[in-house]
Predict the structure.
Amino acid sequence: MIDNDKVLIKKMRDSEANIEPNLREALDVLHFEVNDRDNIVIKPNLCDFRPAWEGGTTDPRIVEAFIKIIREKANPKITIVESDHAVATADEEFERMGYKEMAERLGVELVNLSKDKRYEVVLEGHYFETLNTTETLLGATKIISIAKLKTHIQQKITCNMKNLFGLLPEKYKAKYHPFMSEVLVDLAEYYRPFCIIDGIVGMEGPGPSDGYKKEAGMIIVGNNPVATDAVAARIMGFDPERVPNLRYAEKKGLGTTKPEVIGNIAEGKFEFIPVYSYLSYRFALFLNKCSFRVNRYFEGVSKFISLAGGGLMIFARGYYNSSEFGTLFKKDGFRYVRGLIIRLKVLFILRLKT
């Protein structure tokens, strides 16, 4: 049994000797189980140019400790993944942050998700109708998010929920930023990660890339990304119900922002950007979201008018030649209109039910 609403905090000094026993105890308390048949995928936060000791990326010592603990219990396949981001490839980050050397030493695989074979899965989520995923992720029996304790100028914090953003294989992901809460909830619901937060050295100020390192001396472990990130938010001095993606996730039933906590949750205070700066970032995202929806609306109107024009031609002369659909006859027009009416009826019924 895994405790979904329990989050464990382990204080520790920045010492490699302290990491493994503290992480082992946390996994035991939360009843984390593994067997030989498992295919474990580990997602650290490597979407930054700054190393772990500067608060930018996940400490490879935590990932190594996790792998060693798992191998004490069983011998599953283990893969470490990351995707390309705007300023670097995953392969460059693996080498720069010490993961390539560690993977070779421990005999685990590194996978750049941006190069992995891709598949589309039907999701019908809060943002994604279909989700672009990869062969490695589809083969996983357990996905482990090992995130970093950092501030974020648009989301207030970036921990496990935001770490899942790197599971999208696209290199350029800025188009998703106005819809970040919806995107992250879709990813968390689909992948259901076990969660670890590297808080040995975090980041405060204008994170996730331009902040300042913050000695926090802890790891935070939980099974639910909302619950785990909510505890992290309190430790950093934020109200989790005012963190946009956590508020949205709790509203959608993904997890609670008030989990049972094992350990000392003594709230600290991470420096953050001025409130007017944060509000300006949020307002810019709101305008981007509005712009997208307006453009999508007019694209839909334009397509409808174009189809209506073709339909009128069919009914006027009995057929219509289209480069997109070929030759259409009056019977095709009747079939299309009947299908459109049925779809509108189904959408109306579904809207009434929700």
About this structure: The radius of gyration is 24 Å. The chain has two domains: 6-273, 288-353. The mean pLDDT is 90.
